[in-house]
């Protein structure tokens, strides 16, 4: 069988043919304070003012979304800047919005959440995304024993 070449291509479980599948609108709200917006900022049809509208697919990764946000936010391009991602969605039992933190990426540092896709994270069309950006000098202030691992992330109480 000379001249026969076998090519094995690895496909992601939620891979999308972006040439054939129409993207959906993801409304993204960015906070540069290091904290997510308050749930009350999403109540009664209101949303925070700093909105990015991104057309994307279910196979988009958190790293890919980080790159898109950095294109429009020059301060976030500095190495060590942390991006904390959360989905914001309406509670079906009450007239309020809920948050679900889904991952963290860091500029210039590979992390365990970088390759997570929106599909793997179970986004629903119509959910918002809230991204809290933390500059490196704020979250890594040189404290001994401090690590920037995802497991050490503490969310702010509302």
Automatic annotation (TrEMBL):
<dbReference type="InterPro" id="IPR010516">
    <property type="entry name" value="SAP18"/>
</dbReference>
<protein>
    <recommendedName>
        <fullName>18 kDa Sin3-associated polypeptide</fullName>
    </recommendedName>
</protein>
<dbReference type="GO" id="GO:0003714">
    <property type="term" value="F:transcription corepressor activity"/>
</dbReference>
<comment type="similarity">
    <text>Belongs to the SAP18 family.</text>
</comment>
<dbReference type="Pfam" id="PF06487">
    <property type="entry name" value="SAP18"/>
</dbReference>
<keyword id="KW-0678">Repressor</keyword>
<dbReference type="InterPro" id="IPR042534">
    <property type="entry name" value="SAP18_sf"/>
</dbReference>
<dbReference type="GO" id="GO:0005634">
    <property type="term" value="C:nucleus"/>
</dbReference>
<keyword id="KW-0804">Transcription</keyword>
<keyword id="KW-0805">Transcription regulation</keyword>
